[in-house]
Structures are given as C-alpha cells and as structure tokens.
Specification:
Two copies of one chain form a homodimer. Chain A is of the alpha+beta class. Chain A contains 24 helices and 16 strands. In chain A, helix 19 packs across helix 24.
Chain lengths: ~575, ~575
C-alpha cells in the first residue's frame, strides 16, 4: 500500500510506503490525520501550504457491500477548519485497487493540469502522468466528462473540479463520476473543489486496468463479515431492495420531515412547506412513472451497492433530466427556496453538477438571496438564473459562490442558518434538537452526516426519542458523531447505519470486514472509540486554526425566533454543547 | 453626568446616573467597558442584541487642547470582535457639554429615525425627540447634511450613517461633521455605520444651546495641566503651528514612508511607490498653492485644536474638491492602488464621505479588486466607478462593501492584507516590524492607531529603533498599545502623543487635565496601567467571541513573499506576538 504524493509545483509524483501510524486508517480517519499532521492550521486554504487529500475507505475496493466511498480532506476555505467530505464512486475503488491508501496533492502549478493515474504492471506499482488541462477550464462538467472518457477510455473514473472550484468558491465540491459516467457524485461540502483548483489540478483520471486489488489479511473473516452486513442491509426496511431508499430515494424524507415540522422552509422561517408533497420522493416516483409509463426503481451510485438509492428525474418527454435528486438537494433547492416544481429543482441540481457546486450550500444561499429580495421565494426560473451567475463568476455569482454565510453578510442579514461558515442541511434544529447539537459541535460546520441523530429522533432507528426535547441529546449526538467518524473511515456509505444500528450482527459484520482487511481485532464497541480518536484529531486542528468552543454555537436568530408549526426556539444550553467534546 | 439610552425598539430614551465603576472612564475606556458588560459576545453584529455606544473622552467638552474626540463602540460586523473607533468633531463636545458620558443605542426600529438631542433648561437635563428619517436614506451625505442644518439650525452637530451603513457593510463608518459642516470626520473603521443603521438610527443631531458644560473637580489643576500640554504641542516640530502636520497634513508621511520602503504599494506587493512624490503632503501643499495662488495652511477638524492638520484639496479652478485628504486615505486610494493623481484620490475620498465608507478599507479593497483583475492598478476612473457601485449597493458594490478580507475571499485571492478581518493601514509590516506586531495583536484588527510604533521606528519620536528588526518590538508595541488605550479614553487626539512622548511635562499636563476633571490622582506612569486594564477588557470580549491568540497572526503570504525594496518577509515569531498580551 502506498501514499501517492502529487507535487503540483514541479508536476512530479512520489510513492511512499504507508507509515505504521497510518496502517489501520482509511477514509476520513486517514484524510483528517494527514491534514492534521501536514497542513499548518493557520495557512490560507487556497495558498501554497494547504494540501488536498483523497483516501478510499478501509474496505473500499473489496467486495464489501456499499463501500465505494472516498474521503476528500483539506483545510476548508468555507469553514477555515478541517474538512472531510466523502462520495460514492467507482473512482474510490479504482484508487484502492491500485493499493493507494491516500493521494496527497501538494504545491501549486501554474495553469490547470490533469493527472492520469494508471497501473504500471511491469513495475508493479501505480504511475502518474501529468497533462495540461487548461482546455477543460471554464466549461460545463457535462461537456467535459464525455471528452475525458473519449480520451482515456470508458473504463476510467474521474475526480475533478468545476468552474466553482476555479473561482475559488467556498461553495465548490470535488466531483466524481457515477456508474453512468455522469459528473454527479460529489464531495460537495466545504469548498474542496477550490482547494483542488488552487493546486492547479483539474482532474485525476484513474484507469483500473491491471490493478491488483486490495489485499485481505484474513479472507475468511472478511467473507463472514461481508455476509452478515449484506444480510442486515437486505433485511432492514429502509435499506432493502424495493425498500424506502430504493423506491423513493433519499427524498422519501421530505414528507416525513414535513410531518414532523422539521423541514426548513423559505430560509428556515418555518418547519413545514405547503408544497412538500409535490417535491417528495413519492412524487418523484409517481412523476417518473407517469412520464415513462412504468415504475422506475433507483440505481446504485457506485459498484457493489445493495441499497441503490440514486434516482433519475425525467423530462415530460421521458428523456433524462438529471440524476440524482437527493433529499438534501430536493429540500435545499425546493422547500427552502419555496420552490415546488420538480422540474425546476431538477434543473437546479443539474446546474450544480455542471458547475461544480454543492447543492446544499447552493439552495441555502439562494434562500438567503430570496430573503434579501434579490428574487422572490418560489421563483424557480430566477433561481436558475442565479446559479448560472454563480457558474459564470459574475459579481452576483461570486457573492453567492462564497456560500450562505458569505452571502448573508453581503446582504446584511441576520437570519443566516450556518455554523462555522457552513450552511445547515435539511433538518430544522429548533424542531429536532439532537441534530442541532451535531450541527453546532461537529468539527465540520453544520453537517447532518456528522452525527445523524435523525435516526432515533425521527425515523425510529436505533430507538425512538422526542425530537423537541433537548434531554440527553448531547450524549446522543456524541455517540453518533463518534460512530460516524469510524463508519466514514471504513469506506461504507453512511446509509448502512440504518441497518447496522438496528441489527447487531450487521454491525459485527462491518467490524469483521475491517478486521479481515487490516488484520485487526476490533469489536463492535471499538467503533465509537476509534471514531472519537479521529474527532479529537480534527478538533485539535480546528483549535489550532482558531476555531474553539465559541464556534460551537447556533446562529443567534434561532434563539429568539420561534419556528412554526411548533413555535419552538433553540433552547439547548451552551453547557450541553460544550459537553459533547468536553466529555469525549 | 448621565448615561443616555436610546431604545430604538419603542423609540424611547432613558437617562441613567453614571454607575460608580464608570465614573473615571471616558472615550474608548467607556465604550469598551459598556460593550463588554452589555453586549453578548456571540450576538450577530447587526441583530437585536448588539449595542452602539458613543462616548466623548474624559476631558472632551472642556478647553483642553485638541480634545474633541468621541469614541464609537460596538461588536464589529467587520472583525466579529469588539470595536472602538474615534473621531474629532464638535459633536463630541456638544454631547459632553450636555453632561452625557455615553449614549447607548439599543434595540431595533422599523425604518430609519433620527434622534434630536437638546438641552432641556427647565428640567436641567438632556432631552431626546425621535423623528422619522426615511427621507434621508439612500442619499449622498453631502446632500443631507445641509438639509439637517437647515432644519435644526447651523449650530447643531451631527452623527450619522450613510448608504454603506444602510447596506450593512463591514466597511461603513459613523460620520460626524467637521467645523465647516462637512460630512467628513469619521469613526471609519470596523463597520460602526452598519451597527447604527441596523438599529434604525440614521442620525443623532445634537444642539448645544444652553448646555451647562463639563464640571471640573479641580479647575486650578486642570488649568495647570492644560497649559503644560499646550506648551508641549506648540513646541514640538510635528505638532506646532506651521509645523509638519499643520503645513503638509498627515500626508507628510507619504515621502517618509516611501523613503523607508514601508509604503504599501499595489496591494502590498512593494514598499515603494514610484508616484509617491506626486501624491505626498508636499504635493498637496504645492498643488493648492498653484491652484489658489497662495499658500494654504491646514485647519482644525474640531474646535480647540492646536495641531490643525486637516487639509483641503482644490480643483484646477480653485474651488474646493474635498477635505480632508489624510495620509491613510491618500495612501490607500493612491499608492496602494497605484494611483498617482491627487484629483482622482480626492474624488475617491469625497465619495467615501458621501456614501459613508471608511477610506482605508475602501482603498485596500479596491487594490484587492485590482489584484483580481476587475480593473487595472492605477485606473483612477475605474476606481471611482467601483466606489459608486459600493454606494449604490450593486452586486459588485456589496462584494466590495464587505471589506478587503471579504472581497479577497470573493475573488479567491491569497494576497489579502488583513488581520481579524480588518485591512492593514499605510505601514508595511514586513518593513516595519513593530507596527506589524500592533496589527497582529490589537483587539481591533489591523489598526495603526492602536499602537503607533511608527513614532520611534520611523519618526524618531520617543527614541529611535531599527524598523526592520523584530528585536524588542513586542514590548514596544505593548507599551504603545497600553498608553494609546488611555489617550483614546482622555478625549485627546492621538496626535498629541508626538509631543507628549518627547516632552515629559506635556504628558504630565495631560494627566493633570484628567485629574482636574475627575478628581483622580493619576501620575504619568499610571497611563499605561489604566490603558492595559482597557485592553484586558477588550481582549476578554474577543476571547468570548471566539477570537483568541490564533487570530493574532499576520496573513500567511507575508511570511513567504519578500517585500521590495528591502526584500524582507514577516519574521516575527509567534511567541513574540503571544507575549504582547501574555505579559501584559
């Protein structure tokens, strides 16, 4: 296994043996540790001393189910702190199968380049060729991806950055291909696209031909674990074939959150959207059925996924409009903007993919612009125009491209739903306190995936607790955050958590897969401990970057502005927030 | 003496007796203490819980020389920390003469209002009348001020906010009248204009008629001190009539700093500007002489000033263009933008006054826009157009109105000369280390007035030290910062420091003036102790706002980008920076 370093300053690369301390790390655990160890916490995120780190998960590249995740880490231009943002894509498997544990992108090139990553069978190791890539700058990713496939063959996979990254936006993701070669799988959050572009790196094209694959230390144990995990995923209502996610996609949550009064609407001014049913997962399923004349179940974003939650929205004539309209995108570009047209939402998602924007941050930023009166709530066509401005880098586009906190400042607003500079996702913290504690305290800035307490608070997974009560929620968020940091390191999609939190043998299976790969002897109860170690490393980086507990706070307006329909404010005491890390 | 509270939420006011703990405070000491005591450190600067505090200095309103200063304090929308920004204006004296020690503006009104502050002779106390002021919103302050004088009489004085404040810009000052009724004296730094506008307060018009004046506890002592201070001011080369400041204005520094290689040029890419002589104080003096046919010495910004450093620039036809072209404005809008036309610089200053912008932050922001390629360095007409955009609130204007750090982020730049979100003024810290330590460590964000080590490093005032050496500079900055915090509390203009640091009896005189007003028994050596107490209070606020020692750092590019002509980088160790407050 290697650490691959790309030095953009002189367009060279180096393969290093994996140091002992990194041997058992993968995914988030590895990106965060490398960022912590190598990036000066006070460096400028777009300057010469930041580094961009890619790391497939521990089991990524094996036949472990739903495990084609790659973590992308750096100091974030959005939050100023450490960032890990992961995506599901064949690229993750290709890199892992070349026995690369991490790619560290260092230095800064003049102009844009791409790195062509192949397996050198003769030398028995990966090989990198740098090529000029200025021709791909300033262009729609839906145009560029086919050109890359034409040039490098349709078996390759792609990591890249779009216009948003080139402009240095805080809202700029790293894009990866999905299984159909769409530029649609994103490490969206935190401006990783800008960090990539500021290195002068436009794409990493990975060709898996001849790659030897991941070595298993204990194949029998791995196979045993894999079987347990597969069984759990196939058994649980949320993750099973033709279950909730496979049928309605993640947007199945729209109606559920709306019912709970926790669907942030019109820039977090209500927890309920009168147009919810029109944009819900059920409406996507029914809309497709109508336009295609048949039922369409969802597909996998990456090879080896059992859950298969990625939908495709179709135009009235039955041709594809975009894949995929995730819950978060559907909400941010829909309910949160007061937009109830799936066609408009789909176009907005498509444009985010085309320009390299994070859909969550884009929707929350558009809502802030609506609040400021730039366009009206519900104006889908106006929103589409604004996203084009972002993609073109006009003054208005740059103002919005900086992200929600940035735009809120530009417009002099106080109702700006962000923590540590990153916008809140699709769960209203005033109505669902546990997720609010996660937003406030995670090292990542407001992030639902960092500790998804929605499972017990709303979905009845892993128990059932009252979403409106702050009681016990600090401990709940802490437990979820720690376990999540571990799962994000394994390379599995976080959605396996639905199954393994309810089915203990599934959790065991996940641990056995890891043990099978690494030769470790981890038990289920070790997951949270291992995760907590990762969080502590991230926290240490943030503190050295000047982001301490004072940043673990909700935006002030949530404390004095009651949220309909429950008319609740944010009432979790600061001491509870401080206890999340204080008692870790 | 009273604390006057303006409650904008219900347009009421309240006069409170001054609490014992505030009795001996004034100016910065009082604004910072009230902000510390009453403003939640994590509140939104433009939200309902921030407060705007005005406080004349301890001796303001008396006949103490050069003492018509008012401090304006709040949580800053630019830095996120505590802010004190002071100005010289008759308004300070009028308020002091009504025996008001501080005005605390609280709550938020709908729409804009003005507060008409008069002396109620019958009741023997100040009186406030609120009036609608929406008619003044969105307008040039040069148009509005004459209307206010027409309405309230030409004896009144005015505090207000312009378009920049209404837009909520981080770059928005609080404007005051000068002696000719121009809207030209500014508490410019840190977005105090936006804090005022966000309260719904557009102007405070003060009518001094009948006001009883400041009570002196010991008139003889006061008079004695006053005489000593006057003698010192009249004796020192920098402050005496027809001395450096009275002849050439503060812009006398242009040639001096250029010669020292410390005049930041073209967005801090050089320490020397080839056009320096064309924009220097000497050029202003000669230009006026040519256009007026006679020598013009400078005037006072406010009554009772001996130094009289405010210039006026005239058009080719001899009519007034603008007053005043301060060194900082001349530099920021001139050298730092590569602009060498005094007519263009004067127009830029005029526009800043008209729109309510800080000239320093505006020039450094324009330079960042030039660096980003929006317009070219040296393009005066282009710069004028951009300031109009700021004044009109276009998308480009809002992007620039957020300030230099904000614009730098919008353009994805790394060469952004700011600390704690506030732009550096006219002294290159790589070439003059002591001032860099002040920039890095002051509670205010980069600010030369917070600890003006330029005095010994460049001007040979209070000793002479090598500007390029970091040796002993932390102690030097600490001493200057502490003494400055006290002088900013007395109500004297900081320029008295030139005289009193060299002439010990002048320093004694300043202390005796204060003792004469307050009945205290302070000695010269108490000044730094009293100042240090203020700094500690400010520091405590900032730490609670999440601004700790990690924020006491210079921008990273200064560490790796050598500055011509000396080709020096920022090489002051972090430990020296930490020692400024660590050893206070």
């Amino acid at each position: 296994m290697w650490i691959l370093r790309l030095n953009m300053s002189d367009l060279s690369y180096r393969l290093e043996e994996v140091p002992a301390k990194y041997q058992h790390l993968g995914g988030r655990g590895l990106t965060s540790t490398i960022v912590h160890d190598e990036v000066p916490p006070l460096c400028h995120p777009l300057g010469p001393n930041n580094k961009l780190v890619f790391a497939p998960g521990i089991v990524t590249g094996t036949v472990a189910p739903t495990s084609a995740r790659v973590s992308v880490g750096a100091k974030s231009p959005l939050t100023g702190g450490i960032k890990e943002s992961n995506a599901g894509t064949s690229w993750a498997q290709h890199v892992a199968n070349m026995q690369i544990k991490a790619i560290v992108v260092e230095g800064q090139a003049k102009g844009y380049h791409l790195a062509h990553l192949t397996w050198d069978a003769k030398a028995g190791k990966p090989k990198v060729e740098f090529m000029p890539a200025n021709e791909y700058a300033g262009k729609d990713l839906y145009e560029i991806f086919p050109k890359l496939y034409a040039k490098f063959g349709n078996k390759v996979s792609i990591a890249g950055t779009g216009n948003a990254g080139e402009f240095g936006y805080g809202n700029s993701g790293v894009v990866f291909n999905d299984m159909a070669g769409r530029p649609s799988r994103y490490s969206g959050r935190g401006g990783m696209g800008a960090v990539m572009a500021s290195r002068g790196l436009k794409f990493i094209v990975a060709d898996p031909a001849g790659a030897p694959g991941v070595v298993l230390k204990d194949k029998a144990l791995f196979d045993e674990g894999r079987k347990k995990l597969i069984d759990a995923l196939r058994a649980h209502d949320i993750t099973k074939p033709k279950g909730g996610l496979n049928t309605y996609g993640t947007a199945v949550l729209i109606n559920i959150l709306n019912e709970a009064g926790g669907l942030p609407t019109r820039n977090f001014s209500s927890g309920r959207f009168e147009g919810a049913a029109k944009i819900a997962g059920e409406a996507i399923f029914e809309g497709n059925k109508q336009r295609l004349g048949k039922e369409l179940y969802n597909h996998a974003c990456s090879p080896g996924c059992i859950i298969q939650c990625s939908n495709t929205w179709h135009k009235p004539d039955g041709t594809e409009h975009v894949s995929c309209v995730e819950y978060e995108s559907d909400w941010s570009l829909g309910a949160n903007c007061g937009i109830d047209s799936l066609d408009d939402i789909a176009e907005l998602v498509r444009l985010c993919n085309a320009y390299g924007l994070d859909t969550i941050e884009t929707g929350t930023t558009l809502a802030v612009a609506m609040e400021a009166g730039v366009i009206k709530f519900g104006d889908g066509k106006g929103a589409i125009n604004l996203v084009h401005e972002m993609g073109k880098g006009t003054p208005m586009g740059r103002l919005l491209g900086g992200g929600t906190a940035f735009a809120g400042k530009a417009f002099g607003l106080t109702r700006v739903p962000t923590v540590k500079g990153q916008s809140m996702p699709a769960y209203e913290p005033r109505a669902i306190k546990g997720i609010g504690i996660t937003y406030a305290t995670t090292t990542m800035g407001a992030d639902h995936t960092a500790g998804y307490t929605i499972a017990p608070e709303i979905l009845g997974v892993s128990g059932k607790v009252d979403p409106l009560s702050p009681e016990g929620k600090a401990a709940l968020s802490r437990a979820f955050q720690a376990t999540t940091a571990f799962i994000d390191s394994t390379g599995h999609c976080l959605f396996i958590a639905f199954a393994i939190l309810d089915i203990a043998s599934g959790f065991e299976g996940m641990m056995e897969e890891c043990n099978g790969v690494l030769g470790t002897n981890w038990k289920s109860e070790d997951a949270a401990k291992l995760g907590a170690e990762i969080l502590k490393i991230e926290r240490a980086f943030n503190e050295a970057a000047g982001i301490g507990k004072e940043a673990d706070r909700m935006p002030e307006f949530m404390k004095y502005e009651p949220l309909p329909p429950h008319n609740v404010v944010w009432d979790v005491p600061d001491s509870a927030l401080d206890s999340v890390f204080g008692e870790m």
